[in-house]
Amino acid sequence: MIRIQEREIDRRARPYLIAEMSGNHNQSIERAFAILDAAAEAGADAIKLQTYTADTMTLNTTAPGFLIEDPNSLWAGRQLYSLYDEAHTPWDWHKPLIERASRHGMHCFSTPFDESAVDFLEELEVPAYKIASFEITDLPLIQKVAQTGKPMIMSTGMATMAEIDEAVRTARAAGNDRIVLLKCTSTYPASPENTNISTIPNMREAFGVEVGLSDHTTGCGVAVAAVSLGAVMIEKHFTLRRADGGVDSSFSMEPEEFRLMREETERAWQALGTVSYGCTEAEKNSLVFRRSLYIAQDVEAGDTLTPDNLRIIRPGFGLPPKFYGELLGKRVKQPLTAGTPVSWDMLA
């Protein structure tokens, strides 16, 4: 079992919901505080930051490969360095954001993108770490994070089974088995058709860890379905209003949507229950509405039961309907009035 501080992360607990702030603060700490407050109000268990600078992510150049050339990308034409400079969360914001989250009773942790970020976050005593999909092949970073002994949440967008295995083995070799993997599709936004959440139970079995979902689709339908497949954690990008703009705003959840996701994922989790057949305690009062065998017309002692005087009707206080054919042609040993439930002791 994995805990983030006092909170259990497994299938016995309500799904753990992470609101990813990313760059939606638009370089305003007041907006960052407002996003955090709204996430707490919407029912998030954690607010997640990203810890990097443009210089720790890439080079300030326009050489080939350092511009986003995919015309379908949200960030088509952007230089990587300027994009990361716009989206990064200033490091001096981290402590006040962590303190504010604590006042809400909400966790605050981050995704480090290099070793200096891990050292910085350790000074702040964050309760957990996230490894982004794009860093799952950065085994030195995974080893560094694993050595902290803190819970590790690793997104698996684009990763092959072999790459996920290497990441998990690296963490375990460093002495850390407190791992949650997140099924993820690294498109922004992602379509339900490309999400393939059927992978969740397979991933749990293959790697022997709990599994959640890092979800870039719109709405909460995919998240609810993931919980029905055993997801223990859902991560969603979060903003105040998509119309406010920002690098990730177009595929981020607004507070009302996140609140709905909190309600519906919890319902899905509650509905899972256990393998169960037969009447539950809650259903016992409904048994009376089953059909059963009743005397439908007044009969005298010695009369024969026929389709006219023996019927299968509600309520369910008589013999089960399966005995209908067996009882036809039998004689009754006493007078019976219409509306009498049939029992074996009234037969001659």
From TrEMBL:
Keywords (A to Z) from UniProt: Transferase
CDD domains, per the entry: SAF_NeuB_like (cd11615)
EC number: 2.5.1.97
Entry keyword annotation includes Transferase: yes
GO molecular function, one term: N-acylneuraminate-9-phosphate synthase activity
A Gene Ontology biological process term: carbohydrate biosynthetic process
Gene3D superfamilies reported for this sequence: Aldolase class I, Antifreeze-like/N-acetylneuraminic acid synthase C-terminal domain
Transferase listed as a keyword: yes
Residues annotated as domain AFP-like: 292-348
PANTHER family per record: N-ACETYLNEURAMINATE SYNTHASE (PTHR42966), PSEUDAMINIC ACID SYNTHASE (PTHR42966:SF2)
Name of the protein described by the UniProt record: Pseudaminic acid synthase
Lineage: Bacteria, Pseudomonadati, Pseudomonadota, Alphaproteobacteria, Sphingomonadales
Gene assigned in the entry: pseI
